[in-house]
Design goal:
17 strands, eight-stranded mixed sheet, 16% strand, alpha/beta
């Protein structure tokens, strides 16, 4: 038995024809839908990139306890558990966050790994002189990343030089070399279609349109202030990169056909989250509520045990379910601290694995969905306090915690999942001021675009009960209930 995960970053469900989009070119995702199970109600858990990958390893939420950071010493890592059980694990990725401070413990959990350089602002090629950067729409807040990105682009011109192309080539090399072997797991992960939306001209040509404005393929994490023409242009730029993802997915499907891997190989095609392309008047993610464009994600799974394909599943699933699904596939025991559930029966017969699900970002809204309603609970205090980080690995995305941040730290009592370890409890000042949006409730069956928040006390009370129950099951810190104005004893 073998398993392949093809993981994209910021892959928008609502931009795929499989999920109803009528203008993007993605025939291989449609082809995949005919060969696998398509999940209609898959939601994120912990946001954004590395918190989602921590869920992929550990099968449990982490956003209630800490923000972006490495795997912790007490975490159960799915690839490492497979490795210890004799399943060979290999990671091929161009996701540069793995080799930053806040992602430094992930790739080393695999037997082997290949890291492809050059995405976004990856500090790859060194040039002292500033590059020539075209005048761009609205500028960009992340100046150092933009500078480095334009240096990197000088070395990425031909399609085969693009990090995504190299990543898939290395992944396919591993598959060809090892397809006759047994008990291996390949995680083939590309940073695309994450911003900036840089793609070869052939994919841009799929979306001809008139545009004479400034360069624009990297929207800011901010409200939309650009013209309609500029918004439309950047959506086409995203679509071009999505079509490139589709083309390379097709290469994996071709290889599955050629090598007859459908007979004994689990295939998972997934993403970490979506991305706002002007919907709700916003770009990107993290700084606004997690609307469905971000929170509701595409997921496709082929399981050679059930051999079900070309069907849809409505059960509520999440990223936390992928680790136990892979462990179950290889017959490896699932640790008690994993909150996710193996999806074999859901794939086979749409058997539900949960009534409701949590999702969010540390210090932002805590969100809950039962598949029909989405409830976004905002902090009740204007200063978004009390809030703490719990960790033994005090790093941010690209830096360690500062000495100032650590001056008031103390030791917390163990949580249920920390293997009797006490963690550092560090005061946190979250940058996400979601209190300004307030608490919102949406009926996503009646209002899938989430344009009109509900005033329904009965539905809200039901979602609060789900939320409190799930927070208790996650052993959420006591202050999270205080921050959100929730009664921990209400359930």
């Amino acid at each position: 038995m073998k398993a392949i995960m093809v993981m994209f970053d910021s892959l928008n469900r609502h931009m795929l024809p499989v999920y109803g989009c009528d203008w993007t070119h993605a025939p291989n995702f449609q082809r995949l839908a005919e060969k696998a199970i398509v999940f209609n109600r898959c939601f994120i858990g912990s946001m954004p990139c590395m918190p989602a990958r921590r869920e992929l390893h550990t099968g449990r939420y982490n956003f209630l306890h800490r923000s972006w950071g490495p795997l912790e010493p007490f975490d159960d890592s799915m690839p490492e558990l497979l490795k210890k059980a004799g399943v060979y694990t290999h990671l091929v990725t161009d996701h540069q966050h793995y080799w930053e401070d806040g992602g430094c413990t992930y790739h080393t959990r695999y037997n082997s790994f290949e890291l492809i350089r050059g995405q976004e602002g990856d500090p790859w090629k060194g040039e002292v002189r500033d590059p020539e950067v075209p005048e761009s729409v609205g500028g960009h807040a992340m100046g150092r990343l933009v500078r480095q990105d334009w240096i990197n682009r000088k070395y990425i011109r031909k399609e085969e030089e693009f990090p995504q192309a190299q990543t898939f080539a290395k992944g396919m090399e591993f598959i060809r070399k090892n397809h006759r072997e047994d008990r291996w797991f390949l995680q083939l992960e590309t940073f695309d279609p994450h911003e900036p939306f840089y793609s070869p001209q052939a994919y841009k040509d799929l979306y001809p349109h008139k545009y004479s404005g400034k360069h624009f393929d990297w929207p800011p994490y901010a409200p939309v202030t650009q013209s309609r023409e500029e918004v439309e242009h950047v959506r086409y730029e995203y679509a071009a990169l999505l079509s490139m993802c589709d083309a390379y997915l097709g290469k994996i499907l071709d290889l599955m056909d050629e090598l007859r891997l459908w007979d004994d190989t689990l295939l998972i095609v997934n993403t970490d989250h979506g991305f706002l392309l002007g919907e709700h008047g916003w770009w990107a993610k993290c700084v606004q509520p997690f609307y469905n464009e971000v929170a509701r994600t595409p997921l496709f799974i082929w399981d050679p045990r059930s051999r079900k394909k070309g069907e849809r599943r409505d059960s509520l699933v999440q990223t936390i379910d992928l680790a136990p699904t892979l462990l179950d596939f290889f017959g490896v025991p699932i640790p008690k601290d994993m909150q996710g559930k193996p999806l074999a029966d859901t794939i086979d017969s749409d058997r539900p694995v949960r009534e409701a699900a949590l999702f969010g970002i540390h210090g932002g809204h805590v969100n809950c969905t039962d598949g029909r309603y989405v409830y976004m609970r905002a902090p009740v205090h204007p200063d978004n306090q009390p809030l703490y980080e719990y960790t033994l690995m005090p790093t941010h995305m690209r830096s360690m915690f500062s000495t100032e941040e650590l001056r008031e730290m103390e030791l917390a009592e163990p949580f249920s999942f920390t293997k009797q370890l006490r963690l550092l409890k560090i005061p946190s000042r979250s940058p996400y001021d979601h209190h300004r949006f307030g608490t919102m409730l949406f009926d996503i069956e009646a209002d899938p675009a989430q344009t009109t928040p509900l005033d329904d006390p009965q539905a809200e009370a039901a979602m609060i009960r789900h939320m409190v129950r799930l927070m208790k099951e996650s052993d959420a810190p006591v202050e999270q209930y205080v921050r959100l104005g929730l009664n921990r004893d209400a359930v």
